[in-house]
Amino acid sequence: MTATSRPPLVSSPLITHHWSLDWDVRWHVGRTPLENMTIDEELLQSCHDTSRPLLRGYAWRQPAISYGFAQRTDALHEAAGQASVALVRRPTGGGLVVHGGDLCYSLIVPRVVIGSMRELFALAGERVRAALRHLGVSAMSAVEELRHEACAAGALRSDVMVGGRKVAGCAGRRTRQALLVQGYIAVMAPPQEAMRVLPDRLRRQIEERGTTLSESSGRGFSPAEVFAALQRSEDVIHAM
Fold first, then answer.
1. Which residues on neighbouring strands pair with residue 66, listed in sequence order?
2. What is the pLDDT of residues 121-156, one digit of tens each?
3. Separation of alpha carbons 237 and 240, rounded Å
4. Residues 9-231, CATH architecture
C-alpha cells in the first residue's frame, strides 16, 4: 500500500456545468445484489451519444459484499455462503465494499457529454460533498491516495472524508460510448454478519479508516434521505 498526493481533479465551474445537464434520475428498491449489478451493466451498454446522463440510486435488501471486476475473492466465497451474505462482482473496478447500511448510486454518462473518467470521478465527489453539506455534515475530499483491497480502507482524490475517515467512495468503467461510476455512501453501520465474512485484518482496517454518516454526525439518516440530497432534483423516476 502506498500513499500519494495529487493536484485537484477538475475545476468547480466545469463540475457545475455537468450537474446542470438534463439528468434522468431513478430510485430502485427491492432488487437483489446481482440484479443491481446487472442493471448498471445493461444501462452502461445501452448508453449512446443521444442518451440522457443518468443518476441511479438504490439501497440493499440483504447484506452483501461487492468486489471489483479484477479482484480475486476465492477465500471469501465459503464464509459468505455460510453466513447467507451475497458476494457479487461489480462491473467497475475498486476494492471490496460491505453493503447493507449504505446508499449506492450510479452515474452513466455518454462520452460526448463527459469525455473522461477523471471528470466523472470529480463530479461524483463534488455532488456527494454537496449532499452531505445539505444534510449538515462537513465533508472534504481525500488529500492522499491509498490503494487498498477494501474500498473503505483506501482513498482516491474523488473519495469523501468526514473527520479524517472515509464515508464515500466510487469506482469506474468506460466503454467506447459511455462512462459508468458506481459509488457508495456509508449511511449506517454495515451488517455485522457481512463484516464477519472478512478476515480480521480487513475488518479492523475498515473500522479504523472508515466511518458512517450516523457515527460521524450523531444523527440518524436513511438511504432514501441521502439520495434525495444527492439528486438535487424532485424529478425522480420510481422504477419499481
1. 88, 97
2. 999 999 999 999 999 999 999 888 888 889 998 888
3. 9
4. 2-Layer Sandwich (3.30)
How much is the average pLDDT of 97-120? 95
Residue 130, classed as helix, strand or coil, is: helix
Average pLDDT over residues 7-20: 51
Q: What 3-state DSSP class applies to 105?
A: strand
Q: What is the CA radius of gyration of the chain?
A: 17
Q: Give the residue from 165, 162, 157, 122 showing the smallest Cα distance to 6.
A: 157
For residue 52, with 0-12 CB atoms within 10 Å meaning exposed, 13-18 middle and 19 or more buried, which class applies?
middle
* Cβ neighbours of 104 (radius 10 Å): 24
Determine contact, residues 204/129, Cβ cutoff 8 Å: no
Query: Among 71, 106, 74, 104, which residue's Cα sits nearest to residue 89?
Result: 71
Q: Cell numbers for 3, please give them.
A: 500513499
Residue 108 main-chain phi, psi, to 5 deg: -120, 120
Burial of 130 (0-12, 13-18, 19+ CB in 10 A): middle
Using the Cα atoms of residue 39, residue 40, residue 44 and residue 48 in order, give the sign of their dihedral: positive
If you search the block for the grid coordinates 447484506, which residue do you land on? 63
239 Cα distance to chain centroid: 20
- 168 and 229 in contact (C-beta within 8 Å)? no
